[in-house]
Amino acid sequence: MSHPSWNDSYAAGELPWDTGEPDPLLVEFIASGRIQPTRTLEVGAGTGTNSLWLAERGFDVLGIDVAPLAVERASARLEGRGLGCRFATVDFLATSPSGGPFQFVFDRGCFHVFDEPGERARFAAQVATALAPEGLWLSLIGSAEGPPREVGPPRRSAREVVQSIEPALEIVELRSAEFHRHGAKAWFCLARKRPLGP
């Protein structure tokens, strides 16, 4: 499924999600030691802030985005830095990225942009395909909790999140959080690929 509007957003500079800082929930998760530097995929990497931050900490990162302009900007930020990081234009719902399997997949607000339950389930299935056995996926998802708002990330209920993810992966942790600088409620969702066989 093509999303030309994402590229248009980068062309127009309309990027409310691009804070220029690594997401505090990701920083907190990495600091907790629950995952060590490993082969990592970021879906919806945008201009590469989170991917570069992970690579600076020893992660081997592939950052993908559907918007070629975002990938161009991320690649320009990487140039000459000698980090274990690369960026590619990939439509994640349609194509499995090369370089897997990955022990860690991260997305900040990518899973939740899909309005159709079937597309969100497809996203989760693609994550499961990309992950190594017992690999982890951390997704930061717009929450239906909190007061009504006209702007900000899409709002998904806990039920919608679980129904999309659980068939493909095991949810390890689902808790209420907040998107930094937006004040919008979020879900911190950590899921794991089930081990193969007995």
Tell me what the structure shows:
With 198 residues, the protein is α/β, with parallel strands linked by helices. It has a single domain, classed as Vaccinia Virus protein VP39 (Rossmann fold, 3-Layer(aba) Sandwich), CATH 3.40.50. 29% of the residues lie in helices and 26% in strands. The protein has 6 helices and 7 strands. A 7-stranded mixed beta sheet has the order 3-2-1-4-5-7-6, sandwiched between helices. A hairpin with a 6-residue loop joins strand 6 and strand 7. Helix 5 packs across helix 6. The longest helix is centred in the middle third of the chain and has 14 residues. It is globular, with a radius of gyration of 16 Å. It starts with a helix and ends in a 6-residue tail after the last strand.
Q: Main sheet, how many strands, which sense, barrel?
A: 7 strands, mixed
Low-confidence stretches: none
Oligomeric state of shown chains = single chain
Q: Span from first to last CA?
A: 36 Å
How much of the residues is beta strand, in percent?
A: 25-35%
